[in-house]
Amino acid sequence: MLIGELSRRTGVNPHQLRYYEAQGLLVPDRGDNGYRAYGDDAVLAVAQIRKLLDAGLSTREIGYLQPCVSGAAPDLRPCPETLDLLRARIAALDEQIDTLVESRGTLREYLVATERRLADQ
Question: Contact 39/3 with Cβ under 8 angstroms?
């Protein structure tokens, strides 16, 4: 199928599909005319990519995990790199969450103090 058909079947615009190709996540064949030709397996690959992106993984991380990915869910086989990457990503998210919680607390303190000054006027 051509890129337009893959786009229609997956709901992902052609620009994004070309980006996935540039990142090594999709590997189409090239026809004699130079057009990209995707197999039916590309529909599954795009679904996997979208779900992993929705989970917060980068395209670089997805490329690293692809050998361990199967099914539409997608299912991740317990390859050592899978476990290491997921643990590291969760640790990074936990750190970001802690930072955001701290920032929220500080901003609330500023808000309360500012509202108090407004009420005292």
Answer: no
